[in-house]
Amino acid sequence: MLSISQFSRVSHISPKTLRYYDEIDLLKPQEVNQENGYRYYSSEQLITALKIQKLKQYEFRLAEIRLALTDELYLHDRLLEKAGEIQQKIVDYHDLQAALEGDLATLAAGGNFLFNQETEKITYHESVSWQIISIRKTINVKDFSQLLQEVVALVELKQATTVYAPITIYHSMEYTPDHYDVEVAIPILEKNLATRQLIAQGCVSYHFKGNYQKLPAAYAQLGKWVDEHQYEVVDPFFEVYLTDPSVTPADENEVVIYLPVKER
């Protein structure tokens, strides 16, 4: 048997953390001395401790680890999911590195790395309108591609004719990525097959081209233009995706941002 101090040294888990694992029934000591409360662990429990440490490295939450310790099928499936999540992070960090290098180049040339978009790309429209097939849900933003696939499948099911690029309409008043109210739409030709008509009377658009990491700066530039021209945003804004980010180089993505506005 190993005391909590000995077990801590071998497993590289602090005594404080071991006590917490005991409290939440993640890793309970083999024995507890009833007289002094000292915890003792078996050498076999080192395997469990090392497994916990390994799963924490893979960014498992403690609740997930508890399940993984007792359910091999869950462990296998969750490891597959984690592999996908880590791969996506690699892609995201690659894009972030590309954006950083671009900003460094802009600064070296004497430019403003934040507001380096062209204001000539901003256009005012009296009206924009499309017949759309859409699905509106409250989702985690990580599940956006799944929602887009659902809309594509619905368009195919209805045998509708696509006339423009996919659109996302943001209905949430605040950015809450884990429960974001969004509507994904595809413009179609046939009015009788549409979910509804998307229409904005008075709209400012911004044709953005570049790494998605710079989209917030594009919104800032567009908001600055709206303020300077004495407008205010009145309805949910939406984005039209002219390129597919899954196959387009990060710096070549194109998005048209639309802000419905009215004069102040």
UniProtKB/TrEMBL annotation:
One of its GO terms (molecular function) is DNA-binding transcription factor activity. The keyword Metal-binding does not apply. It comes from the Bacteria. It holds the Pfam family MerR_1. InterPro entries: AraC_E-bd, DNA-bd_dom_put_sf, GyrI-like, MerR-type_HTH_dom, MerR_fam, Reg_factor_effector_dom_sf. Keywords: DNA-binding. Coiled coil: none annotated. Residues 1-71 form the HTH merR-type domain. This is HTH merR-type domain-containing protein. It comes from Enterococcus devriesei. The lineage of its organism: Bacteria, Bacillati, Bacillota, Bacilli, Lactobacillales.
